[in-house]
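Per reviewer request, we include the raw input and output of the structure prediction for the construct analysed in the revised manuscript.
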Amino acid sequence: WLGDVQSEPLFTFLMAGGLLFFSRMVVAESASRWDAALAGVLFGLASLTRPTAWWVALALSMAVIVFRIDHRPWVRSKKRVLFLIACLVLTIAPWTLSNVRKTGGFILLNDAGGYAFYVGNHPLNLGLYEGSDPRVQADILKSELQFRLTREKTEEWQRTHGYWSLPIQERERLWLHAGWENLRAEPWATTRLWGYKALDFWRLWLHPLAYPRAQVILSSLVLVPLYALASWGALLIKRERSGRRFLLLFAVLCMAVTGIHMLTHTMLRFRLPYVEPYLSILAGPGMLSLLATMRKAGHRVSACRINAP
């Protein structure tokens, strides 16, 4: 479903590795400190690939402490989480220090967060969901928001703040402040926009405006059964204590990913690396249970035919 080779395969691999060791740290009976260390390193590398991984890793770590997902004593669990975060910070530290040397200011990963927050939450985005023709609205949004309004903002700040001579982190703060001003000025519009974006993020088919109808239908024929089987698989593993811990972690992952992207941009392509691999894992028990049920039904039908007068 990618138009070309981008960062998704690498990012999916790094996040899956981080979540593997993170899950072992929380769920497995014989977890070691290496699980926390490897989870932190892989989450750090994933953050360098796509910065949202930083916030997701922190959300998962805080959930372990707050909700006490780990079955071990709380103090021991807390130490392991702090060790994981330390490994995460140490992994991205060389990049952050390089940013400090080159820009003279503190930039954790990149400087795109403020602009993405402003553009992603501007009330004009409502036209994509409430406009009469979404395809026309998308063209208007691109020309109005990403070009005209952006140019007007930078020209205004150039007059008032000397925008192009400011350090990068100061420009970032200006965009972030402008985004918060829009949120305070139109809270109802922002609330509606977040609701639409959350639904858009969890759509079970490709975007009809971006893909041919045949591909949209094909994607739904893949995703709808996947989600159905994963839901059934989740009910099956919920019977085990370790399964309940994993499902709680997965729920925190889904909520964190949704919330982070609602603050910027949402699309199915952003959801795939975070959610679909683990739905595929959960679909395994669901598929086995479905096959076993079909096999039993087949045996019953055969027995009825044999015993029929």
